[in-house]
């Protein structure tokens, strides 16, 4: 066998031997909990709501992380389920809340769609801006 | 063996060696489809209301009382209501499984049911003093 023929045989053996599944194991991506931010504005007498989906059963925590521009403001903060027609949020639990750095509502939920709602308690005199932090499964 | 023959062997190995040997199998459809329903209504003192639904297959039906609010103030109230799952009977719902619950967002009632027509019932168990609106979320096959 010539050197050239030996080289070709080597190529053939490589081709035959190189067919194992080359996929390497990867660890699953951790996707829960997920943090969502809900920001907006509402006027005196108004409200704002947003739906979110819990991908699995678990704990939802909600924090009114920003409320201003005035300081010391307090509004209604609640969690519930969206109305079937999408026109609002059917409240399960509400509380009075100001801006905070720690969760103000912590609720166990099944997998499904829920909503968070902010509303004026009748104390606002001008438009307010807010950010709500939602941590959900 | 000539170089040409070896080249042929190499190409043949490239062409046939890397197929997936698993035989093709038809996908199996074993995942059950569930439907989520939000049943809302107004409940007078001492009253009961129900909602009929069809279980498309046997499986677990789960429900929770998601919301109870005062008709007057529109504010949530922590009053307990009786929720139940049963079978439509005449103009009512004969509940076979019931629970007295306050609003929450996790399963409060479950029943394993065959395919067929059933109902979810919401009733005042003597706890409400004025009309309320309620929302029950239930999930069925």
Structure description:
The complex is a heterodimer of chains A (137) and B (141). By secondary structure, chain A is mainly beta. Chain A is 11% helix and 49% strand. Chain A has one helix at residues 3-17, and strands at 34-42, 47-54, 58-68, 75-82, 89-97, 105-109, 112-119, 128-136. The termini of chain A are far apart. Residues 11-19 of chain A have low confidence and may be disordered. Chain B is built from one helix and eight strands. In chain B, the strands form two sheets. A four-stranded antiparallel β-sheet of chain B has the order 1-8-3-6, with no helix packed on it. In chain B, strands 2-7-4-5 form a four-stranded antiparallel β-sheet, with no helix packed on it. Chains A and B meet through helix 1, strand 4, strand 5, strand 6 and strand 7 of A and helix 1, strand 1, strand 3 and strand 8 of B.
Entry summary:
The complex is a heterodimer of chains A (137) and B (141). Helices cover 11% and strands 49% of the residues of chain A. Chain A is mainly β and 137 residues long.
Helical content of chain A, roughly?
10-25%
Number of helices of chain A: 1
Order of helices and strands of chain A: HEEEEEEEE
Spatial separation of the terminal alpha carbons of chain B: 68 Å
Number of domain units of chain A: 1
Strand-pairing-aware structural class of chain A: mainly beta
Known CATH architecture of chain B? Sandwich
Alpha-beta content class of chain B: mainly beta
Strand order of the largest sheet of chain A: 1-8-3-6
Largest sheet properties of chain A: 4 strands, antiparallel
Number of strands of chain B: 8
Low-confidence stretches of chain A: 11-19
Number of strands of chain A: 8
CATH architecture name of chain A = Sandwich
Cross-sheet strand order for the largest sheet of chain B: 1-8-3-6
CATH class of chain B: Mainly Beta
Q: What summary fits the major beta sheet of chain B?
A: 4 strands, antiparallel
Largest interface chains and counts: A-B, 34 and 29 residues
Strand content of chain A: over 45%
Number of domains of chain B: 1
